[in-house]
Amino acid sequence: MKKLLLLLSCFLAFSLSVHAQKPMSHEIMIKLKKVGAPKISPDGRHVIYSRIETSYNLEEQTSDLWIAATDGSSQPRKLTNSKGGEDNYHWSVASDKIYFIAKRDGDEAPQLYVLPLAGGEAQRLTTLSTGVSDVKFSSDGSRIIFSSRVFPTAFTDSASKKLAEEKKKIKTKARVYQSFPVRYWDSWLDEKQGHIFTMDLKSGSKPVNLMSNLTLVNSPGFRLGSYNFSADGKSVVFTATTEYNTTAYQSAKSNIYSVSLSGGKETVLVNDETSYTSAEFTADGKYLITSGSAIGNKLYYLNRIYRFDASSFSAKKELAATLDRPINDMEMAGSSIFASIEDQGVDRIVEISVADGSVKPVLGAEIGSFTGLSLSSNPRIFAYQYQNVATPPEVWVSANGSLKAISKANDAVLAGLELQKPEVIWTKSSRGKMIRSVVLKPTGFDASKKYPLFVLMHGGPASSFKDVFGYRWNPYILGSAGYVIVMTDYTGSVGYGEKFAQDIQFDPFKGPGQEIQEAAADAIKRFSFIDGTKQAAGGASYGGHLANWMQATTSHYKCLISHAGLVNSEAQWGTSDVIWGRELMNGGAPWVPTKTWKEQNPMRFAANFKTPMLLTVGENDFRVPINNTLENWSIHQRLQIPSKLIVFPGENHWILNPDNSKFHYSEIQGWLAMYLK
Question: Fewer CB within 10 A of the end CB, N or C, for the chain?
């Protein structure tokens, strides 16, 4: 295995460094196929995945399912060909059928379909007016459970339809709330709840709402989490909170419950000091495996894995206790848990023992990221997604240690591009921490020349500059006009241990901003091709916050770019869709004069603003609402600082429409050229 990983790393490193004809452009990026996470058949012979063909003309954009042999003996072929895409796809137990969710002609909401591989058209299995999502199958494949968002009192589809029709007739258009939250991401919330339904696939019976007799659903703070079948297939284990309406002043804790497939009241399985995000029984029914995080006054907690004795739901034991890394996804396989973890800028696959919690490496290298794990009935044959900063996600298969590329959807396009190999540097900060940065040279790099520096800052802050491909702030496009890009994982970033992520609390901007600048200075010192007299900085979300902090605290940048960035943390606290974490960050509510509120709010230092700034925002962004960008714009205009404001109607926290995205990139590149060329 070690030899295979070394060969893979060498091959990928070589492929990144090969010089070709063209730089990455927005037009080329749009042509890249977006390959979804794989699902391998139980017999390990085939893998299915989604593939999106993107276009500037949204009418021409397609999303279909593809199938390929896991041994690579045949080319992948398209399975579906419809206007609406398919997701939440699964194999039948016998590996002869595929189930998926889609909204097709005649569907008022997404429904479950089945497609026999022997031939024939996909058949619709559900007709629920409120739609179907997140389908799970029993171990024998005879029954499913899924969720659907319904009105709290509507436990039948006829009741849902009746209530929906009654609401359509109401002429008054008003949203009325009595508790927090009222909106999320880019949507206003309504009274609907996620409920678990079950359906017998063999009998073709109608879906049944399992939550009609649960007391949980009567709580104004009820919110459904994840769910799975019990080992014997007679009940459902699920996570849920009854405290969602309290998130203005605390973190909502989720417990673990079960409900019988024949209905009835819920049973509380686990209610302790942990907030649980998932729960699943081992195949033998001996243990309940859960994931969850601590509840406390820290800004960030790792999601950890726990094992319970299923006979009593006691004897709680933390598995992989020394891992200290975020878990992306995981799958159970007999006496093991296979998981993708984030580790210092890359994603690796590890195997965790259910018996003793020990961790063994399975797949991972110094470059690239391995996620989207899907196991066959033989856990030594599995599928996964591989990507790196220069390569979008593709489907690969590992069969007894032999690695094989399967989807290869973008090989031809990427072969014609010049994509420089990124270089990782570690800087010892003035606070004594080792800080990781990624340095990317521009297209057509010439070591004898000097290049301006663009300091790109990531969002989050509980995120990182992982070795993954990005569509929204692609460093190859940003640097294509002749800039060196430096991307730094400042304190608060994840993949470096829980404490490193927690250390940003009470120091949201000053410490991270200092680390970013020290890392940039280190890069300038190390690489003679960087022109330290020509620097710009920018980012989105938390990266936009940091751009505004740079505006408040330094004038050595030639220009700045802030997308969806807060300039007034007090206003952000009261208008964002989430607020409690902001209170934890600053050590109290805005009316409490904490040191952080007073000393690390960019707007309070507006008198220092001097640097030309580009401000961009989506009009439907509820995470960092437009008021912050407008306030920042007003400050710049009031102080007569060269500035430009771009508002994208219909966009949220992300600029997703292909034409809008192209315009956004062109405006960023134009702004950089104005001040760095």
Answer: C
